[in-house]
Amino acid sequence: MTRANFPRWLLVPAVLGALLVAVPIGAMALTVDWANFGALITSEASRAALWLSLRTAAASTVFCLLLGIPLALVLARTSGTAATLLRSLVLLPLVLPPVVGGIALLQAFGRRGILGHTLDVLGLEIAFSTTAVVIAQTFVAMPFLVLSLEGALRAAGTRYEDVAATLGAGPTTVFTRVTLPLALPGLVSGTILAFARCLGEFGATITFAGSLQGTTRTLPLEIYLQREGDPRAAVALSLVLVAVAVLVIGFTRARPGSLSAGTS
Amino acid sequence: MSLEVDVAVPERDVEVAFTVETGETLALLGPNGAGKSTVLAAIAGLIARSGTVRLDDMTLADESTGTHLRPHERGIALLAQEARLFPHLTAGDNVAFGPRAHGQSRRDAHTTAVRWLEEVGMTAYADRRPHELSGGQQQRVAIARALATEPRVLLVDEPLSALDVESAPEIRDLLRRVLATRTTVLVTHEVLDAALLADRVAVIDAGRIVDLGDTARVLGRPRSDFGARFAGLNLVRGVAVGEALRMPDGRLLHGLAEVPLTDGSPAAAVVAPSAVSVHLDHPHGSPRNSLAATVVDLEPHAHLVRVRTDVLSADITAAAVAELGLARGNPVVLSVKATEVHLHPA
């Protein structure tokens, strides 16, 4: 760490802020039942929850990419009132309590939701299924990808796209061979952030998808449940998620400027 | 076969119309910020502007019919001030980008790229990324990239202004070679670029073409004050009287008319500052023009000093300035031979 110029007294709240994060994490690592750690995190319920979490988070991240990349491009390349409104709408899940997101999803796709009947006719029942988990995760995580990628697209500008067009490249070629590669750092950090958010999703999932072992009970839900039955298992599983989070941060930090590239 | 342009850029108050014949290079000469680049963007189709752009029998843009071909459908390549090489591709892949976009196979595009990199002397750098190249090298690759698409028209926007003084002449030579047979619109504020690269020059002042003609004529016998300033020449307007020009103050400037002038018709005289000499008194003997004037300004000009007066500017040595003891506001007498005064209709 290099010495910077700032008022010395700022160090006090800064250290307190760091401790607020460090003490609970440290406490968890100190109090976990290391002797039975392996057994605790490999119980059948735990393994089912972890496997479900990984599968749904991966699927949700793919949907975030499929829907979020076009959204980010539209937002980055348009201006005006409509674009501002669209941006606010897309970013809404970012500031919304996840449980409210879950309620909203139920009102749309639940059995009594406005689309419920239509889905029923089509033979689709979404609420309280693994599909619902994926929808909930995509709902809350997509803004992370959109925000990060839109920033990268804006920063890259249209100068290279213009050149590519005058070289005879059609819009699709320009998009795949110039636009996306130039925004890759923002895309990668956005994808990692979205994946992490999917993995940690709790509120919208439990509201919209419920908590059925092996079907909708992801790792955060399992942890919440174990807190009542077997607190030692809850702590051990929490530590697993901490490890995943540390890995995710490591991934983003390993790419210089990737986190900041999204928002600068 | 020709490129016909008639476009207006209202937000910059630019309205220009010109035709470029096949194989010809037309320079749009004007100051920075005059909207010249916007005209190029309109020709390339990057922005929609009112007016028409036609290439041979094809209408690229026509406001009245709502036609607006997209940039990739026009076959017009744009060479910008900065090279704008794709940073994620090697020099070779940058050049191969256009041929690939035009449907060439990977191998054919590679062959095309190799050929054009050789043409611009960059074969050894094919595998380098743009950030590993100097500004001049990047511009060479950009030229190869633009030409590799075999564009029907090449638009060149101040290609040398972002380069250092060492690499600019090399790139100018390269452009001179590759533009020779290509239909090109060149935008520049450098009179040297126009002189060396263009067949014809259009001088743009305040958003309008004020002079348009063969390069030698526009730069040697400018018809606009603006063009004369660009070419570094004196332009005096007045009325033709025999083999002389009656200036607004009533005095006569004797010269040679290149085409017969009608007495009483508006005319202009072009005089090179190097042909004007400065004295403190009326000189004895031959020069037919000797005019009393007042020094307005003195400024360095190459190795000489440009003496601006209320009549003509003169280029004289610093030693002469010292000997004459010139300062702003001094009365002087300017003399210039009639054979150095070129008269033409205005």
UniProtKB/TrEMBL annotation, chain A:
Keywords: Cell membrane, Membrane, Molybdenum, Transmembrane, Transmembrane helix, Transport
One example GO MF annotation: molybdate ion transmembrane transporter activity
Keyword Ribonucleoprotein listed: no
Localization (cell): Cell membrane
InterPro entries reported for this sequence: MetI-like, MetI-like_sf, ModB_ABC, NifC_ABC_porter
Secretion signal, residue range per the UniProt entry: none
Topology within the bilayer: Multi-pass membrane protein
Similarity comment: Belongs to the binding-protein-dependent transport system permease family. CysTW subfamily.
Function per UniProt: Part of the binding-protein-dependent transport system for molybdenum; probably responsible for the translocation of the substrate across the membrane.
Protein name per the record: Molybdenum transport system permease
UniProtKB/TrEMBL annotation, chain B:
GO molecular function, one term: ATP hydrolysis activity
A Gene Ontology BP annotation from the UniProt entry: molybdate ion transport
Keyword Magnesium listed: no
Top-level taxon of origin: Bacteria
Pfam families named among the record's database cross-references: ABC_tran (PF00005), TOBE (PF03459)
Keywords noted in UniProt: ATP-binding, Molybdenum, Nucleotide-binding, Transport
Domain ABC transporter: 2-231
Domain Mop: 284-345
The keyword S-adenosyl-L-methionine is assigned to this record: no
Protein name: Molybdenum ABC transporter ATP-binding protein
